[in-house]
TrEMBL record:
Pfam families: Nitroreductase (PF00881). It comes from the Bacteria. Its EC number is 1.13.11.79. GO terms for molecular function: 5,6-dimethylbenzimidazole synthase activity. This is 5,6-dimethylbenzimidazole synthase. It is an enzyme of class 1 (oxidoreductase). Keywords: Flavoprotein, FMN, Oxidoreductase. NCBIfam families: BluB. It comes from Micromonospora harpali. Residues 7-173 form the Nitroreductase domain. InterPro entries: BluB (IPR012825), Nitroreductase (IPR029479), Nitroreductase-like (IPR000415), Nitroreductase/BluB (IPR050627).
Length: 214
């Protein structure tokens, strides 16, 4: 698959997992692609926890559903109705989850390039996640990033050491298909912002205000 095809075909998958296992050779390739991501100071601050244990995934899923209910309670009217139709995870439908973590001490104590931007290491982890996602798409696999959880709960669940931050729980697996339109757009939650609105030249655009009558 061409790079641009993978970028535009990539979807946040929740409902399309088949439940089949991820082939070992494909898993190695997508992890290798993630590990090849650029990182500040060549610190490579990520780790990948492969979660296959059904009991662990069920416990995490119960936590996710509780957090979904917490968010749903903040909505009313049309927003509540739209959200009720949206599936937020594929934790039980996929047979593999990959938890990506961030170790801020990796490459320390002096991480080249991070002295003035503390979050540069976290950005590096996000680049690894994007590499993994695009590689999985090229392999014909789906990925779903679950964000309805509390970091301390996930750290305790997986025994993540203090000081290491769990950044993403990714559901990974074969899918029946990838939707042509993102879920949140299909369900009317948000629409894609046109590229032209996101591109500025030389500086941030100033808001146009009405001039007083002269």
């Amino acid at each position: 698959m061409e790079l641009y095809d993978a970028i535009h075909r990539r979807r946040d998958v929740r409902a399309q997992f088949t439940g089949e296992p991820v082939p070992a050779d494909a898993l190695h390739r997508i992890l290798d692609a993630a590990h090849a991501a650029p990182s500040v100071g060549y610190s490579q601050p990520w780790d990948f926890v492969l979660v296959r244990d059904a009991a662990v995934r069920r416990r995490f899923h119960r936590h996710v559903q509780a957090e979904r209910a917490t968010f749903a309670a903040t909505l009313d009217g049309a927003a509540a109705e739209r959200f009720a139709r949206i599936k937020i995870d594929g934790v039980l439908e996929s047979t593999l989850s990959i938890v990506v973590t961030y170790d801020p001490e990796r490459g320390g104590p002096a991480v080249l390039g991070r002295h003035s931007i503390a979050d540069a290491g976290l950005y590096s982890v996000c680049l690894a996640i994007q590499n993994l996602w695009l590689a999985a798409t090229a392999e014909g696999l789906g990925v779903g990033w679950v964000s309805f959880y509390r970091e301390p709960f996930l750290a305790e669940l997986l025994g993540v050491p203090a000081g290491i931050r769990p950044v993403a729980w990714l559901c990974v697996g074969p899918v029946t298909h990838l939707e042509t339109v993102p879920d949140l757009e299909r369900h009317g939650w948000r629409r894609r912002r046109p590229l032209a609105e996101a591109v500025h030249h030389d500086r941030w655009p100033q808001r146009v205000t009405d001039r007083p009558n002269s």
